[in-house]
Design brief:
The complex is a heterotrimer of chains A (445), B (333) and C (286).
Chain A: E1 23-25, E2 31-35, E3 45-46, E4 53-54, E5 59-62, E6 71-72, E7 77-86, E8 92-100, H1 123-132, H2 145-148, E9 159-164, H3 173-180, H4 182-196, E10 200-206, H5 210-223, E11 227-232, H6 241-249, E12 264-268, H7 269-281, E13 287-293, E14 301-306, H8 311-317, E15 325-330, E16 337-338, E17 352-357, H9 358-361, H10 374-378, H11 385-394, H12 397-402, H13 413-417, H14 424-441
Parallel strand pairs in A: 1-14, 9-10, 9-12, 10-11, 13-17
Antiparallel strand pairs in A: 2-8, 3-5, 4-7, 5-6, 7-8, 13-14, 15-16, 15-17
Chain B: E1 4-6, H1 18-40, H2 42-66, H3 77-87, H4 95-110, H5 123-134, H6 136-139, H7 161-170, H8 175-182, H9 186-191, H10 203-215, H11 222-241, H12 249-254, H13 258-265, H14 276-296, H15 303-311, H16 314-320
Chain C: H1 2-29, H2 36-44, H3 58-67, H4 80-91, E1 101-105, E2 118-120, H5 126-132, H6 148-152, E3 158-161, E4 166-169, H7 179-183, E5 189-193, E6 200-203, H8 211-217, H9 227-231, E7 237-240, E8 243-246, H10 256-260, E9 266-269
Antiparallel strand pairs in C: 1-5, 3-4, 6-9, 7-8
The chains are: A alpha/beta (445), B mainly alpha (333), C alpha+beta (286).
Chain lengths: 445, 333, 286
Amino acid sequence: MSRTFSIGGIHPHDHKISVNASIEDFPLMDMAYISVSQHLGAPAEPVVAKGDQVKVGQLIAKASGFISANIHSSVSGTVTAVEPLPDISGNLIPHVVIKVEGDDWEESIDRSPEIVKEVKFSPKEIIDIIAKAGIVGLGGAAFPTHIKLSPPPGKKAEYLLINGAECEPYLTSDYRVMLEYPEQMLIGTKIMMMALGVSKAYVGIEENKPKALKLLKKIASKGYKEIKVVSLKKRYPQGGEKQLIDAILHRQVPSMGLPIDVGVVVQNVGTALAVYEAVQKNKPLFDGVVTVTGGCMTEQRNFRLRVGTNFERIMFAIGGFPKDAVKLISGGPMMGKAISRMDAATVKSTSALLLLTEEETRRGEEGNCIRCAKCVEACPMGLEPYLLNRLARAGRTDDLEVNLIQDCIECGCCFYSCPSNIPLLDTIRLAKGQVLKIIRSRPKK
Amino acid sequence: MKKLLVSPAPHIHGKDSTQGLMRDVIIALSPSLLVSIYFFGFSAIKLAFVGAITCLLVEFAIQKYIIKGKVTVNDYSAALTGLLLALNLPPNSPGWVVFIGAVVAIGVAKMSFGGIGQNLFNPALVGRVFLLVSFPVIMTDWTIPVSWFREGIDASSGATALSIVKEGLSKGMTMDQIFEANNFSYAQMLFSKIGGSVGEVSALALLVGLVYLLIRRVIRPHIPLSIIGSVMVLSGIFWIIDPSHNPDPIFTVLTGGILIGSIFMATDYVTSPMSTKGMIIFGVGIGIITVLIRNFGAYPEGISFAILIMNATVPLLNNYYKPKRFGKEVKNG
Amino acid sequence: MTTTILFTVVSLSVLGLLLALILYLVAQKFKVEEDPRIDDVEAILPGANCGGCGYAGCRAFAEGCVKADNLDSLYCPVGGNDTMKSVASYLGMEVAEKAPQVAVVRCNGNCDSRPKTNHYDGYSSCAVMASLYAGDTACSFGCLGQGDCVVVCNFDAIKMDPRTGLPEVDQDKCTACGACVKACPKFIIELRNKGPKNRRIFVSCINKDKGGVARKACAVACIGCFKCQKVCPFDAITMSNNLAYIDYNKCKLCRKCVTECPTHAIWEVNFPVRVPKKEEEPVVEQ
């Protein structure tokens, strides 16, 4: 029996048109633009200057502050500048700009294809290695992984969940990782289990990926008995942290709580692979699998892409920006972010580049709310988006808090299902930020 | 450099639209409309046509010339209101009655509250009840008009099953005697009732509409089922207490507009609650009030009033009955 | 028939009287004692309930005035000095005169001078747009053009100019209530003194990027070149973060900086047109 979460959800067409494109190495670019703020938390501090020679995998910016992550060079060459450049939102963020010369890796990185199964580190050492390698959650939020793997005092993890749901339409990067690096990913899972000190892990995969399910089940049953591969129904937002825990363990994270409050840590498939490579192969996080897809493209691709690749360069590699496309999205169509500038570059957590045409992404004209309750039915958190929208437009933060706007996971189910095309999430997202600010500014009891 | 389009997520949208949902409801009504055209002929066509056109025109005129705002008649909601109103009138109603009902429905019950999505009461029902209290003679004249398609039915046979029962009971007859005297049978009610408003000739046609609405996910089953269920339970209790003077539950459900009311009127999005719990309470409330009106009130049916009364409670129900919140009800561990 | 009517009339009258009595008693019991002067002060106020004074509405402001020991920290921007004078004389207090102010939009990057780099297609709100993107041009400080300031204005004093895509303040209608200042997520709008004969000079840009970056994003940006600061004889111009700012209390309206500015980022308003100059200033609003 496939499992699924208990409240709300929608069933968008999955459009997994790039499933059969195997992962290919992206051709080396001429220039790399590596942002110092690729993660949640404080930006990293650059440790290189103009004129420095760097190698692939060399530390170029150091974590600063508690929530932060190291950043390593993804290419070898000369640093030509450390200057503010626009990120995908158009905000100016310091970038390390490197002119690529050859492909010279740090000697300490093990580039052989052999799979190293034996883990010879203590939990503390593992977390140190992960922190040094600058690994962040690759599911989208880019939260530094080493912090997630060290639960706060008084809290104990019981289970590790690996998110292979990939419930967003179009995306296939996690699927390709599961197919092409299945054992590496499971070893990564084991390493994180050791770091957390848990004895049981689940890998949740949606039913629309039967090949990955079969393959991982087979490998897990052979050598990784403590990891259980479970099949999930196809339903969005199954890959949301809270929904995944509900689906697999039937535990619900309380309002304003974290997964660790119910004894769970959730990590993404891509993160598991990155952890494997960091711990067993000594390779810091500087690349990732990125799906480049879209109905308007003739060829669908899954690239292994270095961090800091310019979007124009990627479009060049796929044969130019498709004529019909109007929107370039970093991530999936439901929660991804529309890229505002072609001269920005990829970051660690870039998992997909999706090209949509005007037809596919058009927002209909907004009409009156007909109170059909479709948003209420769709909301996976059991909220009332129609009400939150109205309260948000009226700026009634007290009532918004009573109606739990702070629990919104911004999955977009409400706007997706609204027959009147009311931009529910646009207003709710903004008001949620304001309410969270108010809640956080209150003195703690 | 290419100028990209940006907007907040999500970047794709589902296929639902207000227009599409309203069109689905109209499609769900079409079996009943066809059956009624078969039975009542031109009269049914005339009523439906006048109702729908009047509603569209009134909404258009108000939006264009009084509010001077956006004209949204193309969302089909006004046409649906007109159609529902027509289907809830006696088959022999004159055209001007539908016209007045439609003006009241759209002008008073819908547009004066601010148009689609803002009205507190179901517009079609307000129109119908307005007509019922203003023109009681016309609204209870159940004479069956001549139909082109069907011959040989006595045009004078009037009165709905419910009013026959009510009258019979007041004369001191028992249920069995009434049934026998009038030749009632369930099969007849399911396919073609003896009298009643345009849309409720055939219970089966209405149920086909319900199935269509459920399959298309236009409505959820909670409201119709809780109305029908509570009507059956409550009338069943009365029936068990005194079977000779109370109609049995199946008869109760099949007559007097319970079906058309619960499937098409009570499920109106705007005037029904948003949460599942709210919907069930709303439906049960309608069921109870309907049976009470029938057994103790002056009107033989009563679902129109029951729905309007419960419409008034919807804001309250929305306030008190919230959907099941994530992380609130499951005990962890 | 008559008895029925009589009975109805009598019973309803009795009922009405009874309820009126109850209402009266309850009103007496729960009567809130209020300073009667609050009503009078409220009557003096303009009654716009705009919140520009910092209070929730005119009544709250009236209450504040009555309770306050002096009126120094209280000011009704809508009514201005006249209103405050009458409030003060009613309450028997003194009030210092304040210079009347007006909202000023400090961005002049119109469609031509500040080319778009992307198109925004979300909910039409500056706040929503600003929470996700830096803007639809290369300037991350400039006006987003979604008109949040227009929506909040209670006095119909601010409008989007479709030619420039920028908001335009109607100085006669503007009451300097500050609603637009609070609504703008980019902090572009500022309240400045109206100035003698409504004449004022201000830097119509808040771009803090380095000159080159700012210039590339917008042809009329302040590039932080210090020219205006050097030319100003009254030390009214300060430079910080590559941006000039004119202190309206020090500025003597000599207009030297206006001619000096290489990007025409400094604006003069309501001055007579300069006659002999070879080059016309950019057309001044209002």
